[in-house]
Specification:
66 residues, mainly beta, 5-stranded mixed β-sheet, two-stranded antiparallel ribbon
Length: 66
């Protein structure tokens, strides 16, 4: 996960075991607890950007490791 472009946004790739969705948090450069490999539950409206699934400003909950 890394901020893209000069604008403040954070993008993460979310994989649920069946498909990948890009999560985009506008106005954020970092979110404490959101790190590569962490378990997280997300919820939001799935849209499309450049032919790929995306959720902007998703609701999220950090989950315990298995």
């Amino acid at each position: 996960m890394a901020p893209r472009c000069a604008g403040a946004s954070l993008e993460a790739e979310f994989f649920d075991g069946t498909d990948t969705v890009t999560l985009v948090w506008m106005g954020q450069r970092r979110i404490p607890g959101i790190e590569p490999g962490k378990r997280v539950m997300v919820r939001g409206r799935v849209g499309e950007r450049a032919g790929e699934k995306v959720i902007y400003n998703p609701y999220y909950e950090l989950r315990e490791a298995l």
